[in-house]
Amino acid sequence: MTSPSVAVDPSAKVDPGPPPRKSRPAQRLLHNIGWYGSALLLFLFIAVPIYLIFVSAVSTREAFFAYPKALIPTPDTISLANIELLFTTPGVIDAFWRSVIVGVITVVLALGVGAPAGYAIARFAFRGRDGYRLVVLATRAFPIVILSIPLAVTFRNFGIDDSVIGVAIVHTALTLPFVILITSSVFVSIPRELEEAAQTLGCSPWRAFLKISLPLALPGLVAAAIFTWVLSWNDVFAASILTVINQTLPAKILVGLSAAPPALRFAAGFILLVPSLIVIFIIRRYLLGLWGRVVK
Amino acid sequence: MSEIRLERIVKTFKEVRAVDDVSLTITQGEFMVLLGPSGCGKTTLLRSIAGLEEIDAGRVWIGDKDVTDLPPRHRRIAMVFQSYAVFPHMTVYENVAFGLRMQKMDKDKLDKRVKSASGLLHIENLLERYPSQVSGGQRQRIAVARAIAMEPEVLLMDEPLSNLDALLRLEMRAELKRLLSEIGSTTVYVTHDQVEAMSMGDRVAVMRDGKILQLGDPLNIYRTPVDRFVGGFIGNPPMNFVTATLDRAGDGLAAGVEGAGSQPVDADHVDSLSGHVGKAVTLGVRAENIDVVDDGDGAGDTLRARVLVVEPLGSHDLLTAQLGSEQLKVATRPDLAIKPDQDIHLRFEPERTIWLDPETDRTIGM
Fold first, then answer.
1. What would be the CATH architecture of the domain defined by A97-262+281-290?
2. CATH assignment of B4-226?
3. pLDDT tens-digit profile of A129-173?
4. Confidence class of residue B310 from pLDDT cuts 50, 70 and 90?
5. How far A108 CA lies from chain B's nearest CA (Å)?
6. Testing the interface with A: which of B82, B87, B151 to mutate, by most A Cβ within 10 A?
7. Cβ contacts (< 8 Å) between A207 and chain B: which residues?
8. What ipTM, to 2 d.p.?
9. Continuous segment of H or E residues that includes residue B346
10. Count of Cβ atoms closer than 10 Å to residue B44 Cβ
11. What residues in B contact A197, CB-CB < 8 Å?
């Protein structure tokens, strides 16, 4: 810093400062290519099969078997015949509704049991809390394949084999870890001081929960519920092992359509995809927020 | 407005005694400050009064009622939390009205109370907004309004000003003091900021490690702290502590500071110090009670010091000076034009000097 008494010489060269690092713009370009490129590849990895399924599901017979396959559906290659056929196949509509009902029962059971567990983990520092959390997670690591036959036998003994409630029970068991983990993080994000403040203002602990924590946790609980429903909807394996006549949609499609024409199978795959895609798209903002990333 | 009586409160977390056998009586309408560093137990004690902590031993009395086994909602208290704990999913109006709604107060009375409390805190124009739409300072006012709307017997405040920026804190301190004296409620106020404690409290309880070290009015604690910790904790800058040896000097005593000189002992203290003659003793004196004098002023009752740093603070200069082998802070008039490396002579004001036993760090005669 020059002192005020020294005059600035107008003819002196202006010091340009240290030379800029030439590699900077190039570095940034490579960096961006890396990130966006990987993101693009990942997107394509997921999107291309979905797109192909979609195209196949709405193609006419001829377009479906044409080679090379037209990738962009044009008006003369589109036909909803496959989907129509799918829905008129006996049992499909019933299976569809069964899937919905199993999903609802699963949500009620999983949230009814899981949310209080999540609350306990969030609020109470009980002995073995960390171990408990680990065990909850570990149950998910157990391969359902190994459990499925014994489960089917046990269900037969209890008279709930080949039933909607049986499938719902298994789905509850499968989704409970997620519900517990999600709800516990939801409740952790609600400051305990809010409940305490409510208590000093005249609430019992239960009332404080109802009036303060529950409304604030609702978005998170709804997201957990929807997530649970989607998991239940998508389950193929447990459903197909546990049901013979009263099948859910994925089970029906797997078993019933194994001999069906490929076009029909693509249509079925597409039908199975759509609800999940829609639901996840709607709640993605909330899920990402839950996992720490804000989405505009 | 109730009296609060705490009898031998003990609260333990794992193996640590957060509140260690504390007894305290807070009189009706008093503003009691619990002051101390982090972890001293002041917040735990406050929460024990609120009923948010279950105590391990002792009784809590509010008014003439033993509330020890009662939950918070039956104790007729209201609390302001450090983080404000304003309900984000309710409007400001609903926040302030919350406690009153829990009491099922009738609509008109409730509305009047809410408007009155909001008016006192100057948030009446925010009533339809949500907490996320107002500033931090305004959220703090919402928290206070919500508490005083309850017209509680006891008002508990847990560091309500510590999340505000410095300027706002200054303003709110004065505003809160005036407001609470108007309301006249019995208030227990927790803070780690000794300026807040001095400015607002009728009495201050200085706490450390779960115990109350000293209880008294702010000026009392400021002038005669009970030990080195309290003396160093209260006041800005902290009290200076100087090591000296006590010797006889004529009819009285004098404390000799190695390499600097000596200071006569005030007549009032001579008796209590008589047992320490010939031994080490610690002098405690505040920066503003040290006078810078001309050298050779009196007969050998000044101390020589060398100035290390001069901080011109506008209203006064704060000197850091080397006295023998120790350093101390001296506050002087701003126009003395003292420079670093200058030699100065100091005199400690005798009535403002306290004497501590170096082995216990406690003030002698207290």
1. Orthogonal Bundle (1.10)
2. 3.40.50.300
3. 888 888 888 888 888 778 878 888 888 888 887 888 888 998 998
4. very high
5. 25
6. B87
7. 102
8. 0.84
9. strand B343-348
10. 24
11. 79, 81, 85, 87
